[in-house]
């Protein structure tokens, strides 16, 4: 039998690291909800932040 290398995780729905949650590190776009034009709420830990700037 041949051992297969594990597949790389699908990162197609991840935001850039600097835009992820500054509290828990969440990067899945489905878990980051825009509240208005410049703030996002992380559905994993409830942190509200401005992407690229950190906590509000």
What are the key terms here?
mainly beta; 56 residues; single chain; 4-stranded antiparallel sheet
Account of the 3D structure:
- By secondary structure, the protein is mainly β.
- It has a domain at 17-55.
- The protein has strands at 32-34, 40-42, 48-50, 54-55.
- Strands 1-2-3-4 form a four-stranded antiparallel sheet, with no helix packed on it.
- The radius of gyration is 15 Å and the shape is elongated.
- The model has no long low-confidence stretch (mean pLDDT 88).
As a percent range, the share of helical residues equals under 10%
Strand/helix succession = EEEE
Q: Report the oligomer.
A: single chain
Q: Which of globular, elongated, flat, extended, rod-shaped describes the shape? A: elongated
The radius of gyration computed from the alpha-carbon positions, rounded to a whole number of angstroms, is 15 Å
Low-pLDDT stretches? none
């Amino acid at each position: 039998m041949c051992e297969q290398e594990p597949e790389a995780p699908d990162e197609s729905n991840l935001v850039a690291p600097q835009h992820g949650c500054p509290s828990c590190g969440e990067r899945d776009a489905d878990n980051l909800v825009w509240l208005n034009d410049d703030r996002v709420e992380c559905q994993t830990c409830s942190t509200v932040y401005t992407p690229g700037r950190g906590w509000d």
